[in-house]
């Protein structure tokens, strides 16, 4: 058609239907499940408006609606024939035949299917996203003599359920609409799963009633954090109230079906729904949760008589103030497997956050370290590097990333070293051109590209990076003639619209950037860019061009991280704390091949015990004092000198994430980074050692572990015949066999 494919790709909007790591992980998992030939479905909500588009105006974040469907979505297919009803509100009637949930409001769930192709194996799985629709008799069925026009307009109330994604990452906002969204996706999905089970040969019907004994053998449901936790009482409601199973049998099947993945240990992120809200919206589910809790607590009381504090700690219901349901506790009790997403995180889950539960059932708790799909995060975004690797070790590594270890043989190969450096340089030049076009800042492509991209959050410590930028700036100004390794510092990410401190951090970074980028003494030695509207399509551009990856969360706060893995695979070196998957990256590559600094989890615990006193560090470290004084005095905000007083006040008096405590170690570690960067060959050799050690962090490996340890299914590397070939013509052509 005479169209340019790259130009076409640029026009297409991201489907920004998640917030950060959690949503992106699900996307990588779908890719891996299809590539491994698993019969798996991804279920979620088809939000009309995804994560907001971020604009930076005068250094501040401004949100715009993400109208991603404006030009249509060619990849989805609406499936009105599978539309299902979802009930809300109403009341519970107890009859001779059991409980009945009556007088409910109905919303219809309309599924949209998106194909998920496996990598070169002719497998195509389905992602099914639900959209909310009002029934046609909505507001007209009840004795509504009145306003027909208003009744039709009121359909919006029902359809608002799938209107917009809540933009919080690692933060719980207990809003009624959010709970509606959570139950909506759960109720529609479970009906869909049960319909499919009954239609299959396994759902053998005993006269009229389905036999559900084989249900957990045929169905596995993975709860991606606690957001779909209402699936547990909902499945119980279906089994007990509708299918008339005895409670104990229903509970046994339910537990064998569900498994729960925990994604965060931050207390403010844990879902704790007010009982009165659940009672209003889902009255039958509240009764079921109470019954689950009663039996759960009876069991604990039988094992630990008179231990009332243990009962309080382990209850699904939190008393004191407003009564709340602890959704994580519900997930643990209602699942046969619970996992964290990196070794260190799973340890913290077992020994701290849920230690009472782990003491009770240690065999329930597992680890499944996160991974990323090498299809998107190497082949698609970095074809130059992917090709270079294929020339050395063949193309099989794309499906078996552990084969990257073969690159260790070439770590001293001068030609390979030069080629790896050349690919990185080409990626940097391309990205520098993009930055100059978008930001009107002249970029030095031979400078170190120091990149910190992720959601803006205090625990991720973008502030510590900012203090390092100010420190570098002050060093250049103190001695302009001294050798300085040039850097382009790139920070990007969205702040939740209601998160004041995160928005102040963005403003501070932009204020510092304005001063640094316009100081003639600094020149091309240091440039600071805040990357606007960070999203998957932008990550695909910046990650292949990165030299230094910033993974600097306070030890014990980042459950895993996945950006860290993407940078490693794309030839960046990591500066980071011993947190999340950084620990395992250091284990795989050798700690000497990462720039590890700062407190470990034990040190943070010890510092909490002593009491963290920020003032002490400020008084002891002159460069820290200088940087803080500049922020405080309005050096970076001359028109509004006390603009950043909230930030400074937080750093001194309520910094839960101890920025000052790691500042000195961070700055010293950054000096080592600059020193190595001067030796291009030594730097590139370290890069090659990192790429060679990145194999563990494929989501294919992660999914194989879920499949074997939790779902009890076997991945298949059989290449199914393409649709144009007769079925019986291909008996056992595997992936190695020749494809027709």
Automatic annotation (TrEMBL):
What does the record give as cofactor? pyridoxal 5'-phosphate
Q: Where is the composition biased (Basic and acidic residues)?
A: 725-734
Q: What is the lineage of its organism?
A: Eukaryota, Metazoa, Chordata, Craniata, Vertebrata
What is the enzyme's class at the highest EC level? transferase
Q: Which InterPro entries match?
A: Glycg_phsphrylas, Glyco_trans_35, Pyridoxal_P_attach_site
Described by its record, this protein's role is as follows:
Allosteric enzyme that catalyzes the rate-limiting step in glycogen catabolism, the phosphorolytic cleavage of glycogen to produce glucose-1-phosphate, and plays a central role in maintaining cellular and organismal glucose homeostasis.
Residues where N6-(pyridoxal phosphate)lysine is found: 566
Q: Which domain of life is it from?
A: Eukaryota
Example GO BP: glycogen catabolic process
Q: Which gene encodes it?
A: Pygl
Query: Which residues does the annotated region (Disordered) include?
Result: 715-740
Name recorded for this polypeptide: Alpha-1,4 glucan phosphorylase
Subunit structure as annotated in this protein's UniProt entry = Homodimer; enzymatically active. Interacts with PPP1R3B; recruits the phosphatase PP1 which dephosphorylates and inactivates PYGL/glycogen phosphorylase.
User: Which Gene3D superfamilies did the record assign?
Assistant: Glycogen Phosphorylase B (3.40.50.2000)
